Amino acid sequence: MEDIFKHLDQCLEQQLAVWPAAKQAFSNLEQVQTRVLSSSGLALQHNPARIISTTAKVAPAQTTARPCFLCRENRPVEHISFDAGDGFELLLNPYPILREHFCVVSREHRPQKFQDCYEKMLQIAGQLEPGYMIFYNGPRSGASAPDHLHMQIGRSEGIPLLDKLRENE
């Protein structure tokens, strides 16, 4: 698909049409619970379906002992890969936190290092449609795959902090 970053909605539809587990994971987003902090008006979110990702074992001994789930040979057969150029591919995130949630993954298994992807992030940011964002989780700041270089893309609406910032513009 040419210029995939302009057609993320189509990538999502195509992927959910052939992967029932991912379709279920995206429908689980309806169970997200929100609570507003009265002191600031900022909302907190809890997504019960994310427990599998948020409790992932990410210590070096554990990541080297498991097959890397971002490497092509270890992905479910239903997981469609879209060419993102420059040695990267676009994948649907099967454990979404956002209404549309993707990963941009290095085709090569290599460590999660910001200096290895920031240029690609800037390139992608310039190609995204309004309403989308690109972000990076560092290997020690919550990435469930600290052993494989990747970034994430998703819709920016419905993120409590970003919604609050927009409200205060």
What's the layout of helices and strands?
Layout: H1 8-18, H2 20-27, E1 33-36, E2 43-46, H3 51-54, H4 60-65, E3 82-85, E4 88-92, E5 101-106, H5 118-127, E6 132-135, E7 150-155, H6 160-167
Antiparallel strand pairs: 1-2, 3-4, 4-5, 5-7, 6-7
Descriptive notes:
- The chain is 28% helix and 20% strand.
- The protein has helices at 8-18, 20-27, 51-54, 60-65, 118-127, 160-167, and strands at 33-36, 43-46, 82-85, 88-92, 101-106, 132-135, 150-155.
- The strands form 2 sheets. It has a 5-stranded antiparallel β-sheet.
- A hairpin with an 8-residue loop joins β4 and β5.
Main attributes?
alpha+beta, 169 residues, single chain, two-stranded antiparallel ribbon, 7 strands, five-stranded antiparallel β-sheet, globular, 28% helix
Provide a short characterization of the protein structure.
The chain is an alpha+beta fold and 169 residues long. 28% of the residues lie in helices and 20% in strands. Strands 3-4-5-7-6 form a five-stranded antiparallel sheet.
Q: What is the number of helices?
A: 6
Unreliable sequence segments: none
Can you tell me the overall shape? globular
Q: Largest beta sheet: what is the strand line-up? A: 3-4-5-7-6
For the largest beta-sheet, the strand count, sense and barrel status come to: 5 strands, antiparallel
Structural class: alpha+beta
Task: Give a count of the beta strands, DSSP E runs of length 2 or more.
Answer: 7
Based on CA atoms alone, the radius of gyration comes out at: 16 Å
Order of helices and strands: HHEEHHEEEHEEH
Quote the average pLDDT: 86
Distance between the termini: 36 Å
Fraction of helical residues: 25-40%
Strand content: 15-25%
